[in-house]
Amino acid sequence: MTQPEFDPMAFRRALGKFPTGVTIITTKNDKGENIGVTASSFNSVSLDPPLILWSLSKTARSVDAFGEGHHFAVHILSEHQQALSNHFAKQGADKFADLALTQGQGEVPLLPQFSARFQCICQHQYDGGDHVILVGRVLEYETRECNQPLIFHSGSYAKVVHSA
Question: Keywords, A to Z (predicted)?
């Protein structure tokens, strides 16, 4: 049904009908501080060259840390990582406290648990309305056997049900 007047919140609810995976994306800012955000806008772009994309609000305090030429890591979460997803979705406190981090390419902080992880360099940045669309060239990736993926649908976490 077509709406006569555009309602941004109704549009957001409509978009929420599409289930997505949940990621935490990490980087270092120009001051050397660890930065991390929860994002569900992750998607594959190309196999050759290996490219992924994700988007970040232009009003996010961390937006400048993810620009062209900056390294970042995408951590795809599994269903048992809902608390970690919520933690990185909040602003403020040190999101990396009490985590056993390692360093990846570009000294990016790497989280210890994930179902898949992609270490990237931002190859392109595009205007996307109220968001910035970031295209990353995958430099290295790793997968692990894990439980079900963490899914977000209609404003809350959901579970995957496999049919026989």
Answer: Monooxygenase, Oxidoreductase
